[in-house]
Design brief:
The chain is mostly beta strands. It has three helices and 26 strands. A hairpin with a 4-residue loop joins strand 21 and strand 22.
């Protein structure tokens, strides 16, 4: 049985959510155009969250080296949750069942309460937290407000992000501005941060049909623009300052590009434990909340 899909509508815009599969977005469309990569029926039938249009990255984004991180002089071992990949990745919210509350035809709230009582739950994430996603749709925009609150009795390292996939063709163009980028090893762990050179420069609109990239960009300006001349559409994504990193991932063979606003570097918790104060990782005290919003706006060219 396919998981339940909940749909919001605003004029010619439509947003489909799948609370039971990672609190994910399964589709976002305007008139006859898909603004996010829609999930295929076969993937929806098996609840394949990795094939969804977008999903939340909570309570961290990207990779934790070998699924182990150190925090307050203690080592925590996480489940390796990405097939045969050697690292833990993207937290556990994207692999959890969220609760749904529809507020209006164009608004919805998804919530998640993670209380790690079992060994499996602790391996997913060892601290208790509450997360929310609030969606507000209009005919020309979608706002997503993300939050994570530490409900544990202990301090908790945390981060937040969003993992949208956008359709990509040979005609698709991308534009954003950043000052630095992380070079990575073969498992996509950071090696060194370098200034933006011509190969990494997207400050002028570029075609991305042949692009191969899987890197974290830092000091980006909080604005990304995608254009699809063949579809006669453009989309601009803006993000609050808390999302001060941008992950971009695609290959020439893929029909989509992931452009992820996130709050911290890859493997940030381990780097923070080694004394790096510039990772973007946050320590939430009990009861504290980390939050921010991402907004998509679109228009016909």
């Amino acid at each position: 049985m396919e998981p339940e899909i909940v749909t919001l509508n605003a004029g010619s815009a439509s947003l489909s959510l799948c609370p039971a599969v990672g609190g994910a977005i399964s589709a976002l469309s305007y008139q006859d155009s898909s603004l996010l990569r829609p999930i295929r029926s076969a993937d929806l039938a098996i609840g394949n969250v990795r094939a969804m249009a977008s999903y939340p990255l909570i309570p961290y984004s990207n990779r934790i080296k070998n699924g182990v991180f150190k925090f307050v002089r203690q080592d925590y071992v996480l489940a390796r949750n990405f097939g045969d990949h050697p690292h833990a990745i993207h937290g556990n919210a994207w692999q959890s069942v969220w609760r749904y509350g529809k507020e209006r035809e164009d608004r919805a709230l998804l919530s998640l309460h993670h209380n790690p009582h079992t060994e499996q739950e602790r391996a997913a994430w060892p601290f208790a937290y509450e997360a929310q996603q609030r969606f507000q749709l209009s005919e020309t925009s979608l706002s997503i407000h993300l939050s994570v609150r530490n409900t544990d009795r202990r301090p908790m390292p945390a981060g937040v992000g969003l993992h949208p996939f956008f359709p990509k063709t040979a005609e698709t163009h991308l534009c954003f501005s950043a000052r630095e980028v992380w070079e990575t090893d073969d498992t996509i762990l950071p090696i060194r941060r370098v200034p933006i050179s011509s190969i990494w420069d997207f400050s002028d609109e570029r075609s991305i049909g042949a692009l191969e990239v899987d890197n974290v960009f830092t000091q980006w300006k909080g604005r990304v623009r995608l254009t699809w001349p063949d579809q006669g559409m453009s989309l601009t994504m803006t993000a609050d300052p808390i999302f001060n990193r941008l992950v971009v991932f695609t290959t020439p063979e893929r029909d989509s590009i992931a452009i992820e606003p996130v709050s911290h570097d890859t493997d940030a918790f381990n780097r923070m434990a080694m004394g790096d104060k510039g990772t973007g990782a946050i320590v939430l005290q009990p009861g504290e909340t980390l939050k921010g919003s991402v907004r998509f706006t679109w228009e016909r060219l």
